[in-house]
Amino acid sequence: MWYEDALASSHAIILYLHGNAGTRSSCVREAARSQRRGRPSMETGLLQGQGRGALWHQGWGDSVGTPSERGMTYDALHVFDWIKARSGDNPVYIWGHSLGTGVATNLVRRLCERETPPDALILESPFTNIREEAKSHPFSVIYRYFPGFDWFFLDPITSSGIKFANDENVKHISCPLLILHAEDDPVVPFQLGRKLYSIAAPARSFRDFKVQFVPFHSDLGYRHKYIYKSPELPRILREFLGKSEPEHQH
User: What structural domains does the chain harbor?
Assistant: First the structure.
């Protein structure tokens, strides 16, 4: 009852979709660290006046089932609808990190197709599609130049129906889009995030919406999952979410 009352308050809500190594507890840890620093960040969730919902994907943590792209997308759609049914006219933002960006763009594409888009989409450390990400992942560095690498490693991924095609999905999304990426990201290469931005920015679906790419210099050491530590993040979010006019910038 407390949670539903919080959703019905006058605050914006973030639906957070974690990455491959993420959990709900990692979301809470990030929020708590932000609160201890005393800064009014969107990352501090309900503690600072923004609602935040996070779910474990199928097969993660205490969630039952076997992970699949279709199942994860369906779960996210169900949670979004559950939040919207309880949040009135409050803004609802969708935030995906790493693998969660694939779930996020799948979700938002479906929401836009049924004409119920979120108020904004935030992609942190995104890739273009799972095939390019797998080929760029550090685990594949010693294998990617072997003959038959694509056939042995990459083809089974796509043939099993796992695509997470962010690069295709963004062409069908109609809502403000913010992309955050650290230059020293060792898991999802920075160039994949910039490439995704270069695909999204000129897309016709974004002609009436703002698309922004924010890089974080390698000297900051934010790597794959520490962008939330940036003291500039609250300002970036306020400025992005506080404006609605079309704008393409980086």
Answer: 2-34+67-241 (3.40.50.1820)
